Amino acid sequence: MSSESKTKTFLEFQFAMLLISGNILFAKLIDESVWMITFSRTVFASAGLYLFLKWRGKPVFFTSKTENLASLGSGILLAVHWITFFASARLASPAIAVLTLFTHPVITVFLEPIYFATRPRKTDLLLALLVLLGVGILIPELKPGNDLFLGILSGLLSAFTFSYRNLITKKFLSHHGSAQVMFLQSLTAGFFLAPVCYWDPIPTSFHSLGLMVLLGFFFTAFAHTLYVKSMFQLKLKTAGILSSIQPVYSILLAWIILGDIPGYREITGGVLILIAGTLETIRFKKDGP
């Protein structure tokens, strides 16, 4: 990969991270259930991506049964990831949700060798542990059974499903267009979550619907397609560690938009995560993806 291509991939990835960081704000801004928010985002994201693919004259389904099954599995994982992510924000806090999610670089370092002919290097392990330490500092004392504890468990499940979805996506679908991949995953997630309509009323508030459209079209369809596109050009562990900057983005956005002022834990943990992301960025620029 040329230096210019590396810079382009890095900038696209960071822009995707900035947009995805804004997702967590919707857990507080939209006064609907976690299930309905997630289902709605899949509907609007699928619709937007379908229109985009048709406009570009691109196919919407794969011809291979294996690839369609991979889309089905990764789409269900994506749905579980989104549900548990928002549940973590509601049970604990947006900061805890984002920070527990970002144990996924550690998970990816150990899962990637199962699917790809790679072995974790000492540097990978050290950077992953630095991220884990940063996340650990951000988490206050745990007491099993309370909402904080359940929120952290939800965040960890979100991290695992996110990491596993990325592995399946890159292993089986990386030779396809990112918009097509994201469309099928969003569509699958939508069907998986559709039963929510039986127990949760469809939102009628203009405010809620407007925010859901924004979340679905821009912060999901566009942002995640850009993320998948960048991920296809990187090693998963590189993408995972580079994406560790997202908690910092999320905390800053929550500070600016929601008025959630970060405390010393958020600042200390965020600095460690930022250091790990910076070191991985330098190594990416030097050695490649």
From TrEMBL:
GO cellular component terms, A-Z: membrane
Record Pfam families: EamA (PF00892)
Domain (EamA) ranges: 16-138, 150-276
Keywords linked to the UniProt accession: Membrane, Transmembrane, Transmembrane helix
Domain of life: Bacteria
PANTHER family: ACYL-MALONYL CONDENSING ENZYME-RELATED
Protein known as: Permease
Native organism: Leptospira tipperaryensis
